[in-house]
UniProtKB/TrEMBL annotation:
GO molecular function, one term: hydrolase activity
Name listed for the protein in its UniProt record: NUDIX domain-containing protein
Keyword presence, Hydrolase: yes
Stretches that traverse the bilayer: none
All copies of domain Nudix hydrolase, residue ranges: 67-195
UniProt cofactor(s): Mg(2+)
UniProt KW keywords: Hydrolase
Recorded coiled-coil stretches: none
Pfam families: NUDIX, Nudix_N
Amino acid sequence: MIAADRTLLEQARELQALAQTGLAYCKDPFDRERYERIRAIAVDMLAMQADVPAEEMRRLLSAGYPTPKLDTRAAIFDESGRILMAHENSGEWSLPGGWVDEDQSVRSNAVKEVKEETGFDVRAERLIAVQDCANHNALTYPYGVLKFFVLCRRVNGRFTPNIETTEIRYFEEGRLPRLSETRNTAEQIAMCFAAHRDPDWVTLFE
């Protein structure tokens, strides 16, 4: 892909990642000074593109070698084959999930996020797919994001409204609500339905 075909956000992300990698490995103090300056420019560019204060952007972009953030999304089905979705404060719907905490694995984080957002206790059974958010979702993040879709089975528990979720509901495949597309798209929901129907589903990854 040539530079003219890339958005300013994409170019700023790459510039910031290159500078951060340089800071992680460089030994020369003059090179470090140059990388610091390049990183500061890139962070300012990202802050303008994402409409986030530069100080907040600097806090979000941790030091060290740059790696993508991880996000889990749990696919939970009822006896009728409908999928569970959570109603966000934004007014949109998504599969229960969120960022993987530092002390969690993909499996444990999927279970934890379901409990926090829906009140349900679930068992994570199969990994449906690993996807690059930039290839599938409305990407607005200044860093890479990998999404892990996990097929889960409800064990028990009940819903209580909380700070993240106003309600939960099961939906049929052809009657989905308005989706939060940074979290999940109609195509990703269809993929989860397909995995649920197929006992021999093979994990998709890219």
